[in-house]
Write a structure and sequence with these properties.
single chain, alpha+beta, Protein Inhibitor Of Neuronal Nitric Oxide Synthase, four-stranded antiparallel beta sheet, 2 helices, 4 strands, 30% helix, globular
Length: 110
């Protein structure tokens, strides 16, 4: 595992869900080499799909950009050492009524 504590950059998740994300990242880093970002991302994504429903996406790496649409309450970006992790539940704007528990977040540029 990478040395250091997780530093949360941006999130709109509830504390309990944030802690799940951080715990799963630490667990993934125990299982996989830090250079195996695809396996780390797959592990975190599959665990969140199982715990919180389908549609989660996970990006792991040391240098990436992103522009995503996500469900309100379902986004976190954090770093552990030099490794950045972006975890979010994707949104297309065409979800069913069953998915209304997490409505899409409306963001306007300043």
């Amino acid at each position: 595992m990478l040395e250091g504590k997780a530093v949360v950059g941006e999130t709109d998740m509830l504390e309990a869900m944030q802690q799940d994300a951080l715990d799963l990242a630490a667990k993934a880093l125990d299982f996989f080499d830090v250079t195996d970002s695809t396996q780390i991302a797959r592990f975190i994504k599959k665990e969140f799909d199982r715990s919180y429903g389908a549609g989660w996406q996970c990006i792991v790496g040391t240098d990436f950009g992103s522009f995503v649409t996500h469900w309100c309450g379902c986004f976190i970006h954090f770093c552990i050492g030099s490794l950045a992790i972006l975890l979010f539940r994707g949104s297309t704007g065409q979800e069913t009524e069953a998915d209304d528990q997490f409505p899409p977040l409306k963001i306007t540029a300043a």
